Structures are given as structure tokens and as C-alpha cells.
């Protein structure tokens, strides 16, 4: 129980005093900014219609946002018949947005301008077990080195969104009792990054939540109201959107589907329960079955990949073996797809989403996995719930995380919320 | 699949032309109305703070709403130190709100004023299988007779909310392929009621959704952001709230948890699948097990109730028998509680609600059922998801439905939405 162990000294960092490039926005300005962000270019009349504000209130907001240099004129509309109106966009030149997607063994970084235009994209292998200081220092150094090289050090960094592979107490911006992140428990990530980038709004969330956000803003989820985004890797987790926004639940841990029981007599999960979905159907279970098939001499095709790859078998190998007709691989994939689909069928009945998105390393197995999951969902969900349900792979499997991280920071930057974040020092 | 069979002739009833007592509200007015509804009495300054509108905009809204007779002055605030301010409330005298909760075998009706003050409450047994015309005529006659008797016929009926025990296509306001409502499939409920009450806003929703709404507005759910409201009767269904509002999902069928599989080799459900939760753990399964125990001579305590009640055993009887120490009854209740709890554990991991509410006829079994459900949820959910989770019975088990129905109508009445509803004639 984290309540009893959260007796750390607390202090509040008031970002507003130090964020010289980030002004306070009124609720009305925040609404206007987010509408412009979504539609990319809007006229004053568009905004009057979308906000129900008076013309003078919209003009006041636009003037204020132009003074704050967050909004600029961007051409005129081509109305047929009527007067041509000036269009407004976010000011891409205002500053930079940073996004970091920290995985268990991978690091993905991105820099964009305020309009979301990609300026830099970078990926490398890391080990989350190196702990927060080594990992965050590496991230900070990578960003700073790039800014130096590109001569961008004079550009303000407006917002910095971070995804981490563990449960996040979103309001406090820290990881809580993460199973695979030794040394990160309650580490003050925001405070640590804030020292290095004192002028940026900083936000931290769970990696699957930011992937769901990225998919919603720039992937298959665009225009979808309610999605369940499923990341199948070693673990299995879900990000949920409700009316297009990340749904985090009451304690910030919504979407933790990896520990739903699928077999009461199944193997022991590190969480202490038996037969959790991720221990029965996740990447480790798939890899173990494939490895066993090789060791038992049951699959010559898998053996071939095993020998070629220095005695390692990847999800892509198992997918390829299945495509080559390897029955053991097909069976392994179907078993996992069936189990994952049976859990998703329950969740589809409960949540009635418009879309289920499948992503994560294991999804690289390919269409055999997707079709097993789909069949399992369709067989066990109610017809009304699956009538218009789309079940798809991520459109941006490698970028959903970093796109989401940038948008997480941008959400907070353009919001009307107080520029404060409680930081727990250890 | 309902898409292929929905080739009915469609027409649109434009409520706005005929609703002489229901004006159009601007977005700002709708916001102000709903804030006053929630807080019951607010000053202009309270509203400035809550809306971020200017003082003149708030005053403009209040003036307009006073002219429309939806808002009245209601005393002054007792601010300490500062000036006393005029408080505004909804105008209870403006007109009446009707609520009807139609169950499979029960009918609950309510009339309130615009402030939600209860003016009349009525319940009787019905049979939903009598079909829509007989049932709706009965409801209309009961309302009209009461209005006549009380001399209320001169009061306008502003809104009429209806709950029905089947899946509802909320946008169209009709029941779709209901399993236990013969004759109701796609019957134009709104259009039919509209003929009798042409001046009222009319809304129809699933019975569990309106119960969840009622619980949120007036029961244990007050102040709870995300609840799962579970009705355990012959069937099992759930109503979900997200940030205090009913979450209906993409097709309006969210919360249909009765057909989640709990036993792949279980008994056949009328839906065509095996081992659905409601066929294994619902009221019919419990009653059947209890009846079998009596016929097998295994429970003298249950036999006593059976003989006293004309060979019928109710949920209350089984609860009482368990309290008297009847082991068979305790076992039957525990089995159901365990199964329902195991499904809820999955949903708690997924949705991370702040509260699970248990209601419906079977909940009258009492605390033994609640504690089995609670134990099962706590055993299988993640600690972070159950840290602050409340698992409780409904505070208003007999009234959640009608309270919800009234509030459903009121939601639409005070909204800024177009006063239109597509009606499908058959």
C-alpha cells in the first residue's frame, strides 16, 4: 500500500515564477489555443461558432495570444461568396517541445516546434535498470548536445513530456512501485528535469498512456472517441481514451490489464497472483514456448532463426516462421491471441470502444496475431458492441510514444491549470 | 446485426417548434443553469469564479434566465466580512419533471418540480411483455390521472425521462434487439410519448444507466468521479460514470457485463455463448440452486421459506436463511459473489473506478453477498487500483431508477443541444 510509505517530505515547486516563456492563459485563451491546435488554422468567426463566445471576446483572446506570441496570422480563408477572413495558427517559432519515451530497453526522443513539426528524432538502446539519474542525465545530454550542434540553444524549451514503463501517480508526476524499474520508485523525475530545463513545463505519464495519446493525435485513433490501446511486449498494458482524452482512472492506474486473471490454475505471476494475462500470453511466455520448441527439436524452422540470431528468437522470427507454415509457431501465436482476445472481449462488452489498437514489440509477429485477437473478440463480444468496432495495429508503432510524450507536454502547456506540481523529495 | 435491419422510414420530430415552455439556451446559459442546479444556490460572483466569464456576461445570463423564468432570486449569501450577495436558484414553480423506470415486472414513477423536489411517487407491478403500447398507455394514464386529482393540469410538463430494461440506442431513443422485451424492438417510444405530452423534452435510456445516474446525483455516488454501478437481478448489467457523467460507449451499450465469460465450459446462455456471468451467477441461477436444495431435501431452513411463500424462494429468503446459518444458502451466495467479484476485479484493473455500487433485486440478499464480492475484488485487483476503492450497496436501491430518469430528462432540458430527436417509425 503506497499510502503508508508516502511519508516523504513534500514541497511545491511553483513553475509560474520561473517559466519566463510560458505565460498564464485564461480558461477562454486555453480553449481558443486548443481549438487552433486541433484545427491548425481558424478565423475569428470560426472561433465564435466553436466557442459560443462573443466576437469581441474572441478578438480579445486572439489579441492577447498574439501579444504572448503563441498565435500568429497565417493567411486568409477562401470562403465562397463571403468575405475572406484572416486565419490564425499556433506560432511554431515560439519555442521547442521535447518528448522522451523511456522503455525498459529503449529510449526514443523527439524535438518539435510548437506546431508539432518534427525537428529531430532519435532512438537508442538503454537499460532502465541503470536507474533514474543515469537515464535522465543521458536524456538531458542527448537533448543539449543536439541543441548545441544545431545552434538552437537560443530557442526556449516550452514543454517536456516523458513516458516511463511503470505505474505513474500522474498528479504527483512520479513512478509508484514499478515492477521493472529498480531505483525509480518515487524518484522526483519532474524536479530533476526541472533543474536542467528550468523554463519548461514538465509532465510524466505511463508509457502506454502516452502511446494511446500519440495514436489519438497522429495515428489510427484520429477522430475516434473511445479507444483501448493495447501494448503487448514482455508485459501487457492498455491506454484508454474517453471522448478523445486519456482516461487515467481514479488513482492513475486505469488500463492495467496485464494482471487480469485468465487461468485460475495458471503459472505464478511476479505480482503474486496465478494466471495473469501477461504471464500466460505476453512476450516472455511466447518466447519461452518458442525456445522450448527449439530445444525439444519440434520446429526446424524456428531452429533456423535460433541459429542465425545467436540463439535468440524474436517476435518477428516467430511471425516469419508462422508465415512459412511452421505449425508450432502458428499454435503459439494463436494461443496468445486467443487469450488476449478473450480479455479484450470482456473489456469491449464493458467499455464499448470504437477502436481497439494493438501495438508493442509482440505485435511485430504480424497479421496472424491480429486475426487471432480479432476472432476471439468477435466470438465473445456482443453484436451491438462490435457492430462498428475497428480492431487494428498501430499506424505509428515506432512513434506513438514520442508523439504522445510531446502532446502530453503540449496539453499542459496550453492548459489553464496552475503551473504547479507537487514534488516529493526522498 | 441491426445495421441491415434498420431500413425503416425515418423522420425528424423538431421539438423546438412545439415546446412552448422550453426555450433555447445558449452554451453559456446552459453552463450557468447546470452550475446552479448542482450547487442549488449561487451568487453572481460565485458564477464568475466557476465559469471564468466576465461579470457582465454572468449578469446577462442571469437576466436572460430570469426572463425565461428558469432562475429566481433565493435570498442572500452570509459572507463573513464581505458584502452580502443575492443568490440564485432554479425556479421550482416553472413546471414539472416526469420520471419512469420500467422494469421487467415493475413500474416506478415520479413527479418532481424543476428543483428536483419530489411531488409524487408511485410503484406497481407490470409485465414488460405486454408490449410498448399497453405499458406506455398505462404510464401516461397514471400521470394524467394524478395531475387531474391534484389540480396540476395547468403546470407545464418540461421533461420526461424513461428507463427501460434493454439495450438502448441512446441517440435514436429506442430499444434495439432487447432480449426480454417482446414487441419493443425499435418501437418509437419518444414519438409515442410526445403525442401525449407534446410540450415535454423526452429522453429514453437503459435502466442501469439511469440507476447509475440517480446514484451519482442523489445516492452514494455524489462527488464520485468514476463509478461502476452493478445491477444484479435475473440479468446482470452495469452503468458507468466518467467524470460524474454517464458513459454510454460508442454504440450506447457500454456496461453490458452480464455476458462476460466466466466459464468456457459453463451452461448455455440465451445469447448463444457458454458460461456468461449472468447465466452462472445471476438471480435465476441463485434461485435455481436454492430450489434444487429444497427439492433435494438439503436445507430445512430454505424449505421453511419455500413452504411459507407458496413454493417461491426470494433473494431475501436466501439472505435470511444464510443469516440463520444455512450452509447451503451461504455456499450459493458465496459462489455467485465470487464469480461476480472476479469479473469486477478485471474491470477494476481496467477502469480504476473510485466506487463500485451493488444494486438490484439480488442485492437484497444482504451483506454476505457484498462481502463475497468485495473479497473477490480485493484478492484479484491490483493494490494501486483498490487503494481508495469503495465497494458499497446502493444508498437508494428503490429510487435510483426514478431519480435517474428525472435527471436524464433534466440533463437534456438544461442542455444547449438541439431540441431534435430522430424517430424511426415502423
SS-based structural class of chain A? alpha/beta
How many β-strand stretches of chain A? Answer: 17
The greatest interface between two protein chains, and residues involved on each side, is:
A-B, 53 and 53 residues
If classified by CATH, what would the architecture of the largest domain in chain A be? 2-Layer Sandwich
Oligomer: homodimer
Q: What topology, given as strand order, has the largest sheet of chain A? A: 7-6-5-8-11
Strand content of chain A: 15-25%
Q: Domains counted in the coordinates of chain A: how many?
A: 3
Largest sheet properties of chain A = 5 strands, mixed
Looking at the structure, the CATH topology of the largest domain in chain A is Nucleotidyltransferase, domain 5
Number of helices of chain A: 16
Please, what is the CATH homologous superfamily of the largest domain in chain A?
Answer: ATPase, nucleotide binding domain
Structural overview:
The structure is a homodimer of 426-residue chains. Chain A has 426 residues and is an alpha/beta fold. Chain A has 3 domains: 17-93, Arc Repressor Mutant, subunit A (Orthogonal Bundle), CATH 1.10.10; 94-213 and 401-424, 2-Layer Sandwich (Nucleotidyltransferase, domain 5); 224-395, Nucleotidyltransferase, domain 5 (2-Layer Sandwich), CATH 3.30.420. The first copy, chain A, has helices at 2-5, 15-18, 27-39, 44-51, 55-67, 132-150, 189-196, 207-218, 277-281, 283-295, 300-308, 315-323, 327-351, 367-380, 383-386, 400-413; strands at 10-14, 42-43, 71-76, 86-90, 96-102, 106-113, 118-125, 157-164, 168-169, 174-175, 201-206, 227-232, 236-242, 245-247, 355-359, 390-393, 420-424. In chain A, the strands form 5 sheets. Chain A has a 5-stranded mixed β-sheet. Chain A has a 5-stranded mixed β-sheet with strand order 14-13-12-15-16, covered by helices on one side. In chain A, helix 6 (132-150) runs parallel beside helix 7 (189-196). The longest helix of chain A has 25 residues, at 327-351. Chain A starts with a helix and ends with a strand. Residues 1-14 and 419-426 of chain A have low confidence and may be disordered.
